[in-house]
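Technical note accompanying the year-one report. For the benefit of new consortium partners, we illustrate the data format agreed upon in the data management plan: each record pairs a sequence with a structure-token string. No post-processing was applied to the example shown here.
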Amino acid sequence: MARGKKKAGEINSSSMADIAFLLLIFFLVTTTMDVDTGMKRTLPKWVDTTEQQNDVDVNERNVLKVNVSKSGMIMVGTDEYVPNDLRRNGRHSRLSQEVYNFLTLPDRSAKKATEIDGMNYDISEGLVSLKADDETKYKIYLQVQDELTHAFNLYRDDISLKVYGKKYGELEDIQANNIRKAVPMRISEAEPNDQTKK
């Protein structure tokens, strides 16, 4: 009498869906997500358009125009910059040095006597106007933003050293607030536009 081959028993897979679900939950809970770095910017207060007509126009001398194209080329006034000019060599990059000079040199932007802790100091009224093409790469735009902010922070350090004998980052809250009020981060960001339609 011939013996028939025994069939292997089937594996019970009814709990596989539960296990897969638990693994999915586990990986969702334990995985860290990369978060895009943002920029600290305070939006200007809303102004009624009827009130805007009464505002004093900003003196053209006090505006440094920075334009970023979609290819990554940067125009500062009439000078052309490339992405490599955003790399710092020591204290400054080429771009932050230009903005710093614009803020500090007497012939570049007008200075106004500003009271800080009971004393008057000449503070730049300079404003940096930043405009980018709507196809500009986010990385380049952020690098430009970083260098503009870096220049303003170095300028705050200079004023802070004159007033308090310490750098801006070493000040107590009240002193830092005084410097922030006296030296605001004057960076105007225009709405991106499409340069290819022109």
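Partners are asked to follow this layout when depositing records. Residues 138-164 form the longest helix (27 residues).
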